[in-house]
Amino acid sequence: xxxxxxxxxxxxxxxxxxxxxxxxxxxxxxxxxxxxxxxxxxxxxxxxxxxxxxxxxxxxxxxxxxxxxxxxxxxxxxxxxxxxxxxxxxxxxxxxxxxxxxxxxxxxxxxxxxxxxxxxxxxxxxxxxxxxxxxxxxxxxxxxxxxxxxxxxxxxxxxxxxxxxxxxxxxxxxxxxxxxxxxxxxxxxxxxxxxxxxxxxxxxxxxxxxxxxxxxxxxxxxxxxxxxxxxxxxxxxxxxxxxxxxxxxxxxxxxxxxxxxxxxxxxxxxxxxxxxxxxxxxxxxxxxxxxxxxxxxxxxxxxxxxxxxxxxxxxxxxxxxxxxxxxxxxxxxxxxxxxxxxxxxxxxxxxxxxxxxxxxxxxxxxxxxxxxxxxxxxxxxxxxxxxxxxxxxxxxxxxxxxxxxxxxxxxxxxxxxxxxxxxxxxxxxxxxxxxxxxxxxxxxxxxxxxxxxxxxxxxxxxxxxxxxxxxxxxxxxxxxxxxxxxxxxxxxxxxxxxxxxxxxxxxxxxxxxxxxxxxxxxxxxxxxxxxxxxxxxxxxxxxxxxxxxxxxxxxxxxxxxxxxxxxxxxxxxxxxx
Length: 577
Prior knowledge:
The protein has 19 helices and 15 strands. By secondary structure, the chain is of the alpha/beta class. The strands form four sheets. A six-stranded parallel sheet has the order 2-3-4-5-7-9. A five-stranded mixed sheet has the order 11-15-14-13-12, with helices on one face. A two-stranded parallel sheet has the order 1-10. The radius of gyration is 24 Å and the shape is globular. The chain starts with 11 loop residues before the first helix and ends in a 24-residue tail after the last helix.
């Protein structure tokens, strides 16, 4: 920034102090660092080899960190969003958005000016519970996403840290939070996977989906959601694998293994457990009232399972865990992120903040919030509401000593180590998108998820059928209609046996009193109020889920899923154990 030296400060001393940490994969339980200002433009200690073995990402990261200036170090811990569906050519509206966010016109300009370590691609749909902090959208179709990510990487390749690939992430959870939907294999929701109850099916499906993300140029997915659905949280809901910590843990481990096998970093979220509060951190600061012991046994098993599966990242949540650090959002809590997550649970990878443009993080100005988050133990600052202010705040804190250089070097080294690890696996080709093999993996998971909570197990519906839905779900009705027709079931516009679909956000008022079959395509709680003689759940409205539902309604498949959450007055399944 203006008036700031660009001379590289070689971080040899800090790197040497972290050598054991790095070679072991950035492990360790660092104590709270104390401010130790260091002069700019000086170096100390032996030089670090410029070209360490390619097989050792940690050593490569340490060597690269030692060459970076203050400005480069600060940029590497920032991962904002940007406006525009192209790296270098954007509309006037997108340029205005980027100017307000970062004082630049294009995403490529943003990367260059702030030496960014990553960028998140954003977007939302009507049923997306996270849309409150999605300021724009820059995902449309796979070809556009691939061109965008290629342009972003070209810009990042010119940076001093350009030998480490730019992190490009998105929230591709599947279900209600799915950024790229057209032309790709779309999995059923996490809750559907929980109902299927087979981590091997989950792993296979996520491997297929992860390969497609990698082909489009996305190398970190902010998924899987490791939150246990201990409450009727509408913001987490079907994004969770269920209410049983042990069962959810197996599913999370499968998703992590699938994603990372194809070169996409998995991110466990939202630590210490958003599903343990029914409140929404996109609106306020949820409070976790459980004891530390209750969180350890009831919220953290999926996180530890994901870590054991090798998850490269954990996302800190804007959550007030009263038993551990009352009044402090976990994103800014040294006790939770450093003492618990790293010290107690032993996490060795990258910690990423939840969106810093959400209300609990905006209680501080962008610069102060970024400094607080790093000092708490985060390594990446996600979606700051003002890139320039966050960058300047971090740089000033580094120079002034309130952000210890050792803490920043540690964070950047972890980020670069992850980048080099991701670069070891070649990305799949675009031709692999939505292949029959990938769709088969999604179909298998969706088919295993269909659950009957009332009525005979696997009995065909009496035809002809009329499909009805709650408001605004015409596309899903058309998808099921086509699937039923393909399965040999006659479908009429009216007058047939009514199969009624309800989804995200629906309640008792959205049920049909005339329906013979009611199907929950999100959390199944609404079925407790349904009077239909047959109640089914798919937990998802994806094409794979509607195809699986049609097979059950046609009597061609047995609904073998079990509800992963308790529905008052209904069993987990009527199909036995």
